[in-house]
Amino acid sequence: MKRLAGLSALALIISSTSGCGWLWGEDGYFRDRGSDYLQATQTPPMQVPADVSGVKRLDPLLPIPR
């Protein structure tokens, strides 16, 4: 009897969430972010103000191999 109740509850949960577009749609909570990098824009490198002295040269945090 417990198994039937568990399977019924599982079937109810699966059937109630399978059609919810607000969960998995383009604007949904679990949106696919796999191609977001394609819209990324490049930012200029950081600049140290001229009046600051004694600072090491800033290397990029994630250098791009050439």
What are the main properties of this structure?
single chain, 66 residues, mainly alpha, 30% helix, lipoprotein
Radius of gyration: 25 Å
Total beta-strand segments:
0
The span between the termini is 65 Å
Approximate strand percentage: under 5%
Can you tell me the residue ranges where pLDDT is under 50 for at least 5 consecutive residues? none
| Basic shape | elongated
Give the integer mean of the pLDDT values: 79
DSSP summary: helix tally: 2
Keywords: Lipoprotein
Protein name: Putative lipoprotein
Please outline what is shown here:
With 66 residues, the protein is mainly alpha-helical. It has helices at 2-17, 21-24. The model has no long low-confidence stretch (mean pLDDT 79).
Your description of this structure?
This protein is mainly alpha-helical and 66 residues long. It has a domain at 1-37. Helix content is 30%, strand content 0%. The chain contains two helices and no strands. The chain has helices at residues 2-17, 21-24. The protein is elongated, with a radius of gyration of 25 Å. This is Putative lipoprotein. Keywords: Lipoprotein.
Give a topology summary:
Elements: H1 2-17, H2 21-24
Protein name: Putative lipoprotein
Organism: Pseudomonas amygdali pv. mori str. 301020
Keywords: Lipoprotein
